[in-house]
Amino acid sequence: MDTTKRSTFTGKLGFVLAAAGSAVGLGNIWRFPYLAAKYGGGIFLLVYIALSVTFGFSLMVAEIAIGRKTRKSPICAYRLLHRRFGFVGVLATVISLLILPYYAVVGGWIIRYSLNFLGGNFASPDYFSAYTGGFLQPFLWLLVFLAITTLIVLCGVQKGIERVSRFVMPLLIILMLFIVIYSLFAVEGATNGLIYYLKPDFSKFSIKTVVAALCQLFFSMSLGMGVMITFGSYMQRDVSIERSAHRIELFDSGIAILAGLMIVPACFAFSGGDPEALGAGPSLMFEVLPQIFSGMPAGRLIGGVFFLTVLLAALTSSISMMETVVSTLQDSRRLSRIYCCLPVLAFSILLGVIICLGFSHWKSFTPFGMPLPDAVDFVTNNVLLPIVALSTCIMLTRFVGLQTVTEEISLSGKFKGRALFSAVIRVLAPICLVVILLWAILGVVTPFELFQL
Ligand code: PHE
Prior knowledge:
- By secondary structure, the chain is an all-alpha fold.
- About 80% of the residues lie in helices and about 0% in strands.
- Phenylalanine (PHE) binds near residues 22 and 220.
């Protein structure tokens, strides 16, 4: 197998920091809490953790190993493993390309919120819908977010992400802990919300909980998009893939759970447990946090610093998405970095505009029976990602042989989770993935509530 020389991460921690920088982002802080609030609190949390240590862990280990074994970006990596599976790499890269604009729109909101707070403005809860209901402002901040992402990708990213993650992660954890403690003690009624968030209520369990948790896992752990393959291709052979995956998972789930603690109990308290407020979706964080900060001493400053930290975490993720696409273009077209970045930027602006319009002027346009931004989220998370992951499992078990990756994983020590890994890739993952796909299709072609996520 061709393993031409490729630049690598520095030291043992370099890979973990960069991969955790990609995994931890808006998915944890913005998306996880609104899903947890919507899908029953404690029961969602339980299902999520159970799936993260089995399904999430195994897929992550597989992707990193594919990257390190082939030392290639996704398309070439899949093609090298089996010539019929090159399309999986193409699909994975396309997903990164589709998610980036949506991600940048939310990143733009974060920039606006940090500036608001630092400039002395507490956004009122209604501010969010007024703000996203207009087109121009969100569009301008989307451009700023994309411009920063492109500039950093242009300058080469590995060292940059490592360095930023080194201080963003601890700062994020400290700030979040502080906000959690404050809101649990100072917001009246938050303890009831805490129970809602932590205590599983099995009557709220349904297949929908599992489907939502699985799709969130993909997004949050940056799986199925070629990101971990790209990062794996830069990983040194003496660094343990298994231990690194455990660490990334710990960071990723830990920060998601903390974000939920910060937002869900407070939302429950402010709304008295009203299901409509709990099901608010993308607006949840932007409506709940300003209410917490407005009652907090030095809340403006803390709010501002918090949103800035979230912005950095979002940037380390968006950079990894763009880097995956750019490195693929570079590998296959042999073009200079700038010629690879520009088309990606242009496409992101175009789709970003459409998504901004979906939140504002085109609100009534509902492909697949849902608002446009939800439709993009649905197509990528519920349809394309499961197809990539399912094809990866099939390729590994039927065409390449699981030992190709288990050997790579064992290069840096005994693979302790081997039995779990092979059970997940052979049985659990394919079942879960077929269920997600089935739900997605039935949700679109039938009117039954059971299939509507
Ligand atoms: N995992 C990132 C987050 O949770 C999002 C992301 C998805 C990053 C795909 C890279 C690739 O915010």
